[in-house]
């Protein structure tokens, strides 16, 4: 068996493999010099997925950040027409190994199960490593249980198929029975192989070997391998690993292993780990803070709640909102009253995170106090405080939000614009439409999104006008139009789908696909057949699949289906 390149770390992206099925050079298909074949794309995707497990990223929203901005334009994508089934069948008989490899993987990806016998034959008889590798992955995609043992046999010495390929095939098979045959790879010297092994155990739901994983972790003396065992214990939810994790945490310096330990403690629902995790929320280790929040919320230990209240007035703003995330994530009847008293205290710094939590838990007795905090210009984070009123959803806050949205300076007006959409009352339409006309593009964008949340047909004309006048607002305006049910909104989207502006075209086609209305088929088929204007066939066919449930990929398949659909 071939191994991945050595010298990588569990925190680095997995390297592009050389040779076999993963060669970038061989991945350039005959459909165009800049297009990658499906085999390389699939293999590249799974390597990215595997690398991602070591990143230990947080999914928590810090109120101090709104996330990355939405793109105002989308790149034009020119896609060659996908091969038909008949063309792929021809490629299966090709004397060119790369074409055979591409074809069997593409057929598997399309769910064409009648080609399973051919994939089995390729796995057993083909000498070319690219074909054998793609056949293994294809059989994994098919979940062909009969092929599991032959695929695992490729881990033996002398196999020309890389270990990473075998693990991906096994992972796609999703058979827990494979766990015992890949466990030995947790002790591999190659960082990437260990990481992929952990990922595979998780994807095949290998909880049955939990005790063996824990035993191996306790026997391990190599610090480089500790993190992989920790991730496995956490994601397989091996509850008996609690004492091992806490012991390892006491020996670990801030770094990837300690960050992984925090996540693992949360995944196994550790209660003993609550004091450690709560302390980490206010610690100096950035990744540790992030993961400790995730862990506390996942463990849902009510004992963590009182430990978070003092952090709401912490000098570090990030820590204040990390603590708020914990309070949001652990439901308790104690939280609302305690936070209301904090909101009414003299501490200015704590008002933002306190209001944020109170809004998200919809603690209605806090409304007037949140409004008072919003009107105090000395209070930081007024944008977040305004958003809290939107989360509460009480129409009695409209008047105050109308005042704030008209402020000339500061960020509070953005929160007010969002809150008006969050409350969802048509009474706010005139104010939001006025804000949509603002020269402040951020305010206009948020106002468009809020109009979408209200989803009133009364706003369609203005949203249409603003899309035409300011195409850069299209991600927000077209999304808002799409949220309004009915014929008028659909026709507006269809109009922009036919636009010569590639960005408007792409955004509108995407929204038509999301609406799943068969009345849009005629327009989409017309666009698919349009050879003159700038058209994104990949998005058009995706929209057609979303609406019809059909799994056609090429233009000809769609045109034939539409012609003969009756």
UniProtKB/TrEMBL annotation:
Coiled coil: none annotated. It comes from the Bacteria. Residues 1-21 are annotated as: Disordered. It holds the Pfam family HEAT_2. This is HEAT repeat domain-containing protein. One of its GO terms (molecular function) is oxidoreductase activity. Gene3D superfamilies: Leucine-rich Repeat Variant.
């Amino acid at each position: 068996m071939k191994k991945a390149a050595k010298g990588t770390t569990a925190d680095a992206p997995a390297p592009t493999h050389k040779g076999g099925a993963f060669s970038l050079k061989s991945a350039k298909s005959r459909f165009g010099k800049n297009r990658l074949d499906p085999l390389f794309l699939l293999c590249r995707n799974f390597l990215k997925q595997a690398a991602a497990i070591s990143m230990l990223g947080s999914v928590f929203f810090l109120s101090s950040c709104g996330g990355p901005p939405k793109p105002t334009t989308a790149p034009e994508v020119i896609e060659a027409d996908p091969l038909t089934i008949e063309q792929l069948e021809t490629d299966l008989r090709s004397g060119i190994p790369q074409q055979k490899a591409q074809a069997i993987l593409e057929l598997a990806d399309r769910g064409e199960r009648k080609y399973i016998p051919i994939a089995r034959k390729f796995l057993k008889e083909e000498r070319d490593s690219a074909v054998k590798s793609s056949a293994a992955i294809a059989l994994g995609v098919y979940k062909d249980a009969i092929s599991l043992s032959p695929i695992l046999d490729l881990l033996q010495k002398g196999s020309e198929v890389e270990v990473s390929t075998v693990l991906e095939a096994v992972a796609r098979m999703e058979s827990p029975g494979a766990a015992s045959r890949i466990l030995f790879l947790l002790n591999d010297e190659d960082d990437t192989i260990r990481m992929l092994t952990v990922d595979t155990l998780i994807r095949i739901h290998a909880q049955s070997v939990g005790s063996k994983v824990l035993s191996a972790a306790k026997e391990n003396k190599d610090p480089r391998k500790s993190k992989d065992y920790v991730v496995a214990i956490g994601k397989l939810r091996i509850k008996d690993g609690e004492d091992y994790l806490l012991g390892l945490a006491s020996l670990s310096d801030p770094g990837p292993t300690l960050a992984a330990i925090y996540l693992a403690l949360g995944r196994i629902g550790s209660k003993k780990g609550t004091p450690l995790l709560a302390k980490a929320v206010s610690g100096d280790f950035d990744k540790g803070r992030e993961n400790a929040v995730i862990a506390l919320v996942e463990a849902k230990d009510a004992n963590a709640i009182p430990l978070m209240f003092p952090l709401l007035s912490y000098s570090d703003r990030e820590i204040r909102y990390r603590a708020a995330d914990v309070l949001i994530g652990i439901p308790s009847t104690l939280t609302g009253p305690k936070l209301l008293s904090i909101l009414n205290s003299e501490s200015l710094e704590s008002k933002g995170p306190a209001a944020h939590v109170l809004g998200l838990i919809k603690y209605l007795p806090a409304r007037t106090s949140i409004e008072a905090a919003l009107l105090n210009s000395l209070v930081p984070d007024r944008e977040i405080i305004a958003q809290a009123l939107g989360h509460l959803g009480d129409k009695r806050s409209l008047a105050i939000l109308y005042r704030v949205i008209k402020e000339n300076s500061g960020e509070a007006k953005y929160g007010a614009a969002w809150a008006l959409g969050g409350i969802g009352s048509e009474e706010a339409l005139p104010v939001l439409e006025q804000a949509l006309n603002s020269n402040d593009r951020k305010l206009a964008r948020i106002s468009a999104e809020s109009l979408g949340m209200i989803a009133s047909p009364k706003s369609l004309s203005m949203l249409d006008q603003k899309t035409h006048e300011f195409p850069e607002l299209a991600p927000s305006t077209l999304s808002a139009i799409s949220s309004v049910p009915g014929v008028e909104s659909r026709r507006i989207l269809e109009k922009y789908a036919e636009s010569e502006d590639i960005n408007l075209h792409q955004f509108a086609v995407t929204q038509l696909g999301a609406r799943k209305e068969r009345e849009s088929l005629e327009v989409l088929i017309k666009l698919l057949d349009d050879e003159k204007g700038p058209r994104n066939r990949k998005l058009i066919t995706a929209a057609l699949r979303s609406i019809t449930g059909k799994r056609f990929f090429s233009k000809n398949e769609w045109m034939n289906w539409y012609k003969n659909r009756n």
